[in-house]
Each structure stands twice: as C-alpha cells, then as structure tokens.
Specification:
The structure is a homodimer of 437-residue chains.
Chain A lengths: L4 E7 L3 H12 L1 H8 L2 E8 L13 E3 L3 H5 L5 E4 L6 H11 L3 E4 L2 H18 L3 E2 L10 H8 L5 E7 L2 H13 L3 H11 L7 H4 L2 H15 L9 E2 L7 H9 L2 E12 L2 E12 L11 E8 L3 E8 L3 H19 L29 E2 L1 E8 L4 H11 L4 E6 L8 E8 L2 E2 H12 L4 E10 L5
Parallel strand pairs in A: 1-2, 1-4, 2-3, 4-5, 5-6, 8-10, 10-18
Antiparallel strand pairs in A: 7-9, 7-11, 9-10, 11-12, 13-17, 14-16, 14-18, 15-16
Helix pairs in contact in A: 1-12, 2-12, 4-5, 5-10, 7-8, 13-14
Chain lengths: 437, 437
C-alpha cells in the first residue's frame, strides 16, 4: 500500500509554526523526494495570522481544535508551546488516532511518560526532535545512531540564551545583568528570563536526553538545577587563567550509585570543543562505551533551525505512513516495557573537582589554615591563585582549584573556611568537569 | 507479526568485525531493549580466528560464502573490506534476499549505484553508516535528521590519519615524512599510506556524503583529489600567523554551476570548531538552508567506534524486521527514481580565496610586480607577510592571502609570477575556505 500524499495539520503559527510552514513549502520538492510522498499541510490552527507565512489555499482555523477534528489530518504538529492547551491538543490528537510531532520540551519533560503511554495505546507515534537543541538531530543520534552503545554520560550546552550571556561575559568582561539586558533587547532572552538563566529550560532538555541515553522514564522533578545569575566576570577571568571556560551545562552521568542529573555552571578545559561553542549555539557531547566521545553542534533555537527538526520528524513518519507501516522506533529509544526506574544520585553524593573563590586577609598563616581545612576533608588542592592586594587593600581574592571531592566534604570544608576570621563573606564555588571520559 | 530474535551473519572478523561481534555480545541486553528484538550472531565467516573474540557456540565458517548460504541469516554484515570478495559477498547476499550492513566505503563509493539498484530489485536494504566517519552517525544525520533542508555545502575532516599528521605538524613543527613514519609505527597509517595521505580514502567518503546531501548518484571518479604530502611545517606556521589552520578537507558544495566535489589541504579560520578537531578524530560540518551550520564530531576509525555504527544499522533493520516491516529509508536518502545527475564543477571554475607561498629576491620593485600580476587577473590581496631575510640570504619567503578567485585566473597569475626573475622555484598554493555559509 502506498500513498502519494501525507497530510499534516499544524497547531500554532508563531515563530516555529511559521518556520515549519515555510520550510515545508519552500523545500517541498526535495522533501517529497526524500519522504517518498508529498507532505501537504492541509489545515493550520492559529489564533492569528503570521505575516511571514503565505497560507494561500491552506485551510486556516482560529479554533485550533478544528485541526484535530479534521479527518484528513494524519500527522498533527503541535507548536503552541506551554503545557496547558498544548497538552490538551496532543491528548486529543492521539485519541483521534493521529501521529504527533511537537517541539515542546516542557510538555515532553513533564508529561512525556503519560503521553507516550497514551500514544502506544492508540497505536500512533509522538516525535519531538525539535524539543532539544533545536535543529541538531541529537534525539535521533541517541535513539538510533548510538543504539549499539551503553551511554556513559552526556554533557550539553542546551540553552542558547545562557550561552550567549556567558560568551559575552567572557569576550568583553561584562557583568551578567548588563548582558542579560542586551540579550532581552536582541530577542535572545524573554522579558522574564527565569526559564533560561535559572536552568529550567536546560533541565527540561536534559531529562529528555537522559531518558533516551539510559532507558528510564522521564524524571523532570529529579533534576538538580542551578542558574548562572551569580556568576561574576571575575570568575570567568580566573577560570581562564586556570585554563578553563565556564559553561552552563546539562550533565547526565551513569555511575555506580545511579544516574546524576544536573544543570549548573561548570568549568571545562578550554581545549575541549564544547568550551569553544559560543554565542547562541548549542552542542551536546555524548560518551558511549563503544564509540567514545561524539559531539553534535548547531543552532539550538530560531524559526527555521527548529523547523528543520520538526520537518525531519514529519519525514520519518511520512516514510512509514506512505507505505502503510507503523513507526517502529520507541519514543524513548527503548521498548516501553524495558524502561527502568533508576536511582537519581543526590547532589551531596556527586563527586567533581571544584573551583572556589574567596576573599582573604593578606597575612601569613591564612593559606596554611585553608590548606589544613581541605586536608582534613581529604580534599587535595590542584591549583591556587592568590592575587596581589589592590592599593590600600588588605584583602585579596584567593582562587582554589581542587581535585575530585564529594559535595558533602566540600560543604564541610566551605563552612569551616567561611567561619575563619580571615575570610570575608561567602565562598563562591563552581563545579569542574574534565569531560575526558 | 513480531519476532523475538533477529539473526545476523558476520563476514570478516578482523578489527571491525571483531569489534562488532564484541559490542553485540557485551551490550546485548541494552541493544535488545532498544531494537525490540534480540540480535543474535548465528554465523561468522572468517579465514582465521580473532583472539579478541570469544565466538563460543557461534557457528564459524572458514568459507565466508557459507554465511550467505545459511538460511537462518537475515542480516549479512560485510566487514571484509576491499572491492573484490566483498563485492561478491554483498551481491550474493542481496540475491539471497538478505539485508546487508557494511562498513566498506570503497565498495559503496565505487559500486554503490549498482548495489543499491540490486537491493531495491531484491526488496532488501543496504546500510553503511560505518563507511563514513566511523562511529559518527553522519549518514543518518544527512539521510534523516536534516531531511527538511536543502543542503548548501558540507566540509569534513574524514581521514583520521591525515588529521593526525597535520595536528602533529602544527603542534610540534615536524616535517610530513617524520610524522608519517610515526603514524605508521603507531598503527594509524598503513605501510602503504597512499589511500590516506593522497586523499583517496577521503574521496570515497566525500562522494557518499555528497550523494546523500544533494540527491545524486555516486560519482567517485568525479572527485578532485589532492593529498597532503607537499605541505611543509612552514605552511602550517604561516597559516597560523594569518589566523588559520591547515586541514585536509573533503568539500561538497552546491553552486549555480553544479556540484563541487573536492578533497584538498585547506586553510580554515582558527576560530571554527572544525579547525580545533585534532589527532585522529573526524568531524563533518553541514550547512542546510533551514538549520544553518551543524557539526558532527567523533572517532573516525577503530574497532569499537566503527562497530558502533555497524550495530546502529543492525538495530535500525531489526526494529523493522522484528515487526515484519520493510526499511523505508532510501539508500541515498532520496527515492531512487528522484536521484538526478548533476554537473560536477571542473576545478578550473572553482572559486575560493588562496594562500600562496613563494621565495622572492629581497629588493625593491618585487612586491609591486607581484601586485600588478594579481591586479591584472582581477585578484585582490587580503594579506601579505614578507619575512626578514636570513643571515647572508638575499631571498625571503613571501606569503600572500588573496580574496576569492577562480582557479583559472590563479593559474595564470601563478604562471606569470613564476616567470619573474626575482622569484625562485614554484609558488606553493593552498585553497582557503572561510566556512561561513
């Protein structure tokens, strides 16, 4: 059985919806040659028109649910965003026996488990390549391209706004608040930047990547999330002096004690490719037991990069549908009955090297006291920078790079250091990841 | 219809064959959970045992054709290499109705067109992810992940041996021959290094990538191939002074005049990620009209990285076979009847900036004569380095970086420069690629 046309409905005609509509129209011939069937957008549901799209003779409904009710629609593309109306749209589409393609990371991260189960019951497929790292085909790489591997860990720059801010702080020595304001003016950051700069957006993406990597149900609430709002240009500069860059990473790692799931600012060696991913770009580094490290880089957001991923999902589905077949690749890469709940490692047990910055009195004995505190906790010092005091100052910045230490020990060491008379204020600390396997 | 086991035969148990056997054994449970079926190696054909493999109860035949005759085998994995026996194995396997997975770039690049046609006639599938860039899932990215895009161009470091040599020349200022000898001692380069250092291996891979990107039949004989044997440590150093690195790239580009297909040493800006891919690693940069630039990085060779790609292909097939389905993704990403022969642009028409190095007499008027020659050809100079003469020398190295110029004009300019009395010997020249879209 072979169909010449696969019919698509799009709900939401904003940035990504408009981009998807336009890419499908512009590259229609090439996409049809690849998919083995023409992909026709037969129905668009949008509360308002998108001036960038010439919808021409395509049926457009203001009631987005009319797209689901359209019996012609075989694949419903959800590009509304959020987890309220979008969730209802996806649920109703699945119930109506339609395949779903979405770019909605929050929806998948928070409600993916139930939506995937519903899709399986309904005998249809949900695809969400665009939900992580925009146009980079990282979902497909984990779900299919690396299917022979036991994934050891992955680490990604998966929020373009945060990476833009950190890149600017480094390149120009600017303050966080100052760059954030510029990012907002450029449209890279939302008026309320919380999702981006506090790491929630990255956590949404990380939990999806981790489930694909390790074969476990989505556990959004288990991700440790730390933002970049406290970073100073000084940290960026000192990291540089030590041969590191600071990136806001999402990290998922398989360890003896379970799976680590964490989003936080991280010092990484400047020679790593990931350290050289700048501006709004995204990249994900994946370590597999057979393949070793592989890296995937590209645009993590934007109308057409995201549309590229949406259309790839549509083509995947169309290749099967046009032959009357079902898509056989499980939603999370593992057969649903093989997904296993795994212990998430509490942050107090996570072991990494550390970067610490403190302000100390510039007098004899201070360094030796600090060294003793570390030694008492079994933490060894890898590098130390003591800056010369500024004119008329008797306090100096002191930067310490430690070897691997469990957070619990570091908590105690930091508490002891902060209790010293010779130390002013709090000790700033950032985790270090060598990213060397 | 659902099968619990998908049965695989492996022909060839050398480096990659052994790696594939071991990865399938070690990760059997995880692979089965992903594939929806156990992958069982039921028959191995190998002229000799591989001490790294415990074949245990697996049937092993010294006659590799016995694997094809084995009625149990559903997927035949060809890991013999070369284009003689391997070709016969693949042809016979296809004729016997078996699906084929191969890592053989020469076989696909030179005989892919006929093998894909035969597979289609026989209703079976050939997969070859491991043929390009080892464990990096670049075939899948082009064939599926970027299916919504018109690919504009791609540029790849797709020969690890060559990249190791260039990395060492740069890091340590060493001569080509010296590093090649070390690479041979380390097992990175063959006793006869021609395939690697003359770019033939890269050309095999490039032609495969280009066909996937642009939807055209494989045209191995059309690739322009230039090796790295003439590069000197001086070129590497001067490139560095100008802000560039020299990489041996395979480049495929869609232009108004057709498709460019070329492998040659290339100066690329040092800030590009591709410039920072060092040692035996591979990376491919792909520019799509919707997604923009994306990059894929990882191990381009080695037993288990290559096995990772072979197993991914097996899993793809197993996911379909276990449900009684056919694999619907065309061999070259485009439906075979949609592949179109495209004009390959002759090198004389290819336009790039150029790096030139010459030895000139250190006296007034030389520079102005050279500048006039370029100007007469309509070529503008972007940068120029004139070195101080060595003690007692009256000749100096002169390095010129030009703007974009067609090879035809550059040929004439170089001939005119070489004819000057003030220039000694030949002008060395290397193309430059800004890689900026």
């Amino acid at each position: 059985m072979s169909a010449q046309v696969v019919k698509v409905g799009i709900c939401g005609l904003g940035t990504v919806g408009g981009g998807t509509f336009n890419v499908l129209a512009r590259n229609a011939a090439e996409i049809a040659a690849r998919a083995g069937a023409a992909i026709e957008v037969v129905h668009v549901g949008a509360r308002r028109d998108n001036p960038a799209c010439d919808t021409g003779s395509t049926r457009v409904s203001r009631d987005i649910f009319a797209v689901i009710d359209d019996p012609e629609v075989q694949i419903l593309v959800e590009l509304i965003g959020g987890t309220t109306v979008a969730k209802e749209v996806v649920e109703k589409a699945l119930a109506a026996g339609k395949h779903v393609v979405t770019a909605n990371k929050a929806l998948i991260a928070e409600f993916g488990n139930e939506l995937f189960a519903q899709a399986e019951q309904c005998g249809v497929t949900i695809r969400y390549e665009a939900a992580v790292a925009g146009g980079i085909p990282i979902i497909k790489a984990l779900r299919e391209g690396l299917a022979g591997n036991r994934i050891e860990w992955l680490a990604g720059i998966i929020n373009g706004t945060g990476n833009f801010i950190l890149s600017e702080m480094r390149d120009k020595g600017r303050e966080f608040d100052d760059v954030l304001a510029e990012a907002q003016a450029l449209g890279y950051a939302e008026a309320d930047p919380t999702f981006d700069v506090e790491g929630i957006d990255a956590a949404h993406k990380l939990v999806i990547l981790a489930s694909l990597a390790f074969g476990m149900p989505l556990q959004f609430s288990a991700v440790y999330t730390e933002g970049i709002t406290e970073l100073t240009p000084q940290d960026v500069e000192y990291a540089e002096e030590l041969g590191y860059r600071i990136k806001h990473l999402g990290i998922a790692k398989q360890t003896g004690g379970g799976i680590e799931l964490r989003v936080h600012p991280t010092l990484i060696p400047e020679k790593r490719l990931l350290a050289n991913v700048n501006g709004v770009k995204n990249a994900v580094l994946v370590e597999g037991d057979a393949v070793g490290p592989t890296l995937y880089y590209g645009a993590g957001a934007g109308a057409e990069p995201t549309a590229s991923a949406v259309v790839a999902d549509i083509v995947d589905l169309a290749r099967e549908l046009s032959a009357g077949q079902q898509c056989r690749v499980p939603a999370l890469g593992f057969a649903s009955e093989k997904l296993r709940d795994v212990r998430i490692v509490p942050m107090t047990e996570v072991v990494t090297p550390w970067y610490l910055r403190m302000v100390a009195e510039d007098r004899p004995g201070v360094l030796s006291r600090i060294a003793t505190i570390f030694s008492d906790q079994g933490i060894s010092i890898e590098a130390l920078i003591q800056k010369a005091p500024a004119e008329g100052e008797d306090r100096v910045p002191l930067i310490v790079l430690t070897n691997r230490a469990v957070q619990g020990s570091m908590d105690q060491a930091v508490a002891a250091i902060e209790a010293l008379d010779s130390i002013s204020g709090e000790v700033a600390r950032i985790r270090v990841e060598p990213l060397d396997g």
